[in-house]
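Hi team, as promised in this morning's meeting, here are the two structures we talked about. I've kept the exact order from the run log so nobody has to guess. The first one is mostly here for context; it's the second one we should focus on when we meet again. Sequence first, then the predicted structure tokens.
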Amino acid sequence: MNEHLENLKEIRTLMERSSKFLSLSGLSGISAGIIALVGAFMVYTEKVKITGNSDPKGILDAANVEGDFKLYVFKIALFTLLGALIGGIYFTIRKAKKNKEKVWNNLSKKLLINLTIPLIAGAIYSLALVQQNNMWMAASSTLIFYGLALIFASNYTVRDVFSLGICEISLGLLSIFFTGYTFLFWVIGFGLLHILYGGLMYFKYDK
């Protein structure tokens, strides 16, 4: 009986490896979350320095995001994205080498395509909102489009990514209604959720 169960587990593992890209590392999520928290902290401290107000509410409101501060927020967002991408690529390659798997194959291509299309659409839409000085809505949009990207990508990797996508979309939609707290929703979505998800993924798949 145990032998049959072991055989079934092996068959299931082989089927997953042939249909899912399993080299995504939980450490990628943890690093992305830490980078997001550092970026958010830099934006917050800059806002306090300019306004003298330590209340995190309304940081991305139109009245608070003008001129140099608007450019500063954009730069931090860009560096946060680049840092998360570099960390994600590094830890994915490291895990693939450890498991003696190829990083670039048909599955990773499909994963990348499904992840990239919603992200590009979201980036263009968010940039248009930033140009119109609607930073709080842009921040909400990044959460929503990122969640959609994760849901599309989950078809080609572990299903846990789907759950993360739902959480990101939910936070993005909530932040639209609670406008003064958009910055806090962004911190939770890209910072804390990534660290929590990355930790769970690490202990579930990387250990």
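And here is the second protein, the one for discussion:
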Amino acid sequence: MISVKNNPIEIRLADAREELGDLISFPDSEFVGIIKELGFRCELCARCCTKEFNDHVFLLDSDLEIIKQIDPDAVTPAPYYEFCDQNGRFYVSGYALKTKPDGSCIFLENKKCRIYGSRPSICRVYPHMLHREADETGKVDWRQISGLNEHGSYHSELDDSTCEAISQETRAYEEAYLKQMIGFLEALQAHFRKNGLKHVQKIYDRRMREFLKGKCELEVFVYCRGGFEMQKLRSGSKR
């Protein structure tokens, strides 16, 4: 039996389950109070739609279905693959939206979203967030708001019903995200056990170096709909 202490999948799975429990027990009143105090209002500046301000737009399975109906070629494996087996195959917890060469979202035109009514869940709740994340000093704690003072306006007057709606929508996103992550880790755990696989960090690092130098392509297994889809990526391909 593999020790949990030495099994990164087991460690990540335990952490995700704990965080989901903590999220569910986080007081509504506390989150609503934070939202009301900050009073964020979007000014449609579109800064959050660029890599300069946000690294990538992660897609929940429900988002993926909508985006594929709009444009099947608009998605790519999410960056920062979580695991790599001893055969050099990578595994990642979902898809993300592609970006243009300038780093802007593939659906952004003239600072406006072409699919605003069907935009992904994270785009709807941003910048409100409710999960553990490291700040600029490295301290890991609950994060309620992302991108402070980088866009939008703050300290606006928000009524109670607006704050409560923001809180509920944000909670729903964060819960769905954690459940997708837990599903990914459980599926990966079963896949590794069935096929005698394990995560090997040295192979992960070596393959990524080769890929970034254009010496190889990557096989990336993307988690969606409870299983994995294999995608082949070449260095320099649009992400």
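Starting points for discussion:
The CA atoms of residues 45 and 134 lie 26 Å apart.
DSSP finds six helices and eleven strands in the chain.
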